[in-house]
Amino acid sequence: MKTGDHTQELWGMVNSGNSRFRRTVIIGISILGATAGSVLPASAGAAEQSRHLRPFYEQKIRWSPCSFDREVECASVEVPLDYSRPSGERISVAISRQKAADSKARRGVLFYNPGGPGGSGLTNRYGKSAPKEQFKNTPLNAAYDLIGFDPRGIGKSSPLRCENFDLPNITSRPSDKDFDHFATWAEEFEKSCDKHDGQRRKHFNTPNTARDMNVIRAALDERRINYVGYSYGTYLGTVYGSLFPSRLDRSVLDSSVHPDETGYAHMTSKAEAARGFVEEWAGWAAERDNTFRLGSSVSEVMETVEAVSSRLAENPVDGWDRNTFDAFLGFDAEDVAKWQEMAERVAGLKPAGNGLRIRTVPPAPKAAAAREVIEAATYTILAEGEWPQDIETYREQVRANRDRLPYGFGPMGSLPMPPAFRSFTPPEALTDIERDGYPRGIVVQAKRDSQTPYAGGVAMAKRLGNVLISVDDHQHAQYASRNNRCVDEPVTEYLMQGTLPSKPVSCPAASAG
Known about the structure:
Layout: H1 9-14, H2 19-25, H3 46-57, E1 64-66, E2 69-80, E3 90-98, E4 108-113, H4 130-134, H5 140-143, E5 144-149, H6 176-197, H7 206-219, E6 225-230, H8 232-243, E7 248-254, H9 264-286, H10 289-292, H11 298-314, H12 322-332, H13 339-348, E8 351-352, E9 355-356, H14 375-382, H15 391-401, E10 442-446, H16 454-464, E11 467-472, H17 485-497, E12 505-508
Parallel strand pairs: 4-5, 4-6, 6-7, 7-10, 10-11, 11-12
Antiparallel strand pairs: 1-2, 2-3, 3-5, 8-9
């Protein structure tokens, strides 16, 4: 999620009447062949496995102009619902292709995934071709066919279905009663998904999406793929490389998730990152106590913050209440350029005597509309990660963190999501992330991105032996997104020429470069 220029708006949107947006913000092995009605043993040879999957690998793709862009081709491919039983139910995956502009310079296909899980790789939020728009200011299409796809369960691919249950109001510091309301919502949502798609859902996971990618590769008659993935798409890319190392060539992982943090651990890492950014801002404000009068140390500034938050819980001012204030702190603290404005606003709300003193504090913005996401697939895919199944574990975490991690959407990191009530058993263990047999690539990571904290990118680069490009910025998704030459030039050179930076790269934010 991109926080945008007015991050304090987001909490208002969560609790607004726009239930679509409120759902949006809450959002993380070998292939077996089989004969009909039986699972092929894991010891079966590669040739036998390939024989059972051959109809999928050798299928003919029927292209036609996409409805959203006549210059781009669209099609669908068939894949097994369950790769251990390829003769069973089949589902479809929608794909797009923008052919390489220079046929003589063409070097293959470039797969693209925008993240999520739940993001469409076919179209962006404006209904345009997602890979075409993402890379339009790069020369990538000269050398690559740009391949977009909606992962299984998403968009124009075979969908998953759930009933829409509106979220209960979310507060920045959930009480036990708030917790119960949220847990009830999460359990009912999971039950509705189970009612519609039942045990089919367990096959909508990252390893099977990676296997679908390999079917697409084979159907395209390509020996290897190149890959650019953002956010969750970084995890999908590494799972593909771990399962099919001989099939992955150049790869770029932008805004990477931590290779060892899935499910609940990933959610809590976001809350910890938001707290860290607020404390960094508090240190900056403390050094300027003569200007802002918020305190001369981190602890004193944080005490002032808590005093403001407590007063706003009792007496909202100009649309600012505790929820909007706590959210505003977490989002704006990511962006160093907003620190002065942030300090001025906190100073303007600083308690004086028995009330709040108001010094030209802008009113909290009204809620705005946002687009729908595919919750059914999002929560189902998130369920493949590690989620405690004891509800009291979450209750204890909320009680422990309600006053320590209220910033941004920190509380969402402790509350139980629908995967806490998972109605199916994942059919396989999480994929061991490793780079064993495919070339080194690039990890791009913003240092102040709370959606995929910086430590995750560092860990991913180390795990894979990839070159790390660090960006002194808060924005989620960097390459071909921020007009930052320090990022774009080495990544494009690598994708076009195969040349990796000789050492880690440190970049300023685009506005500073």
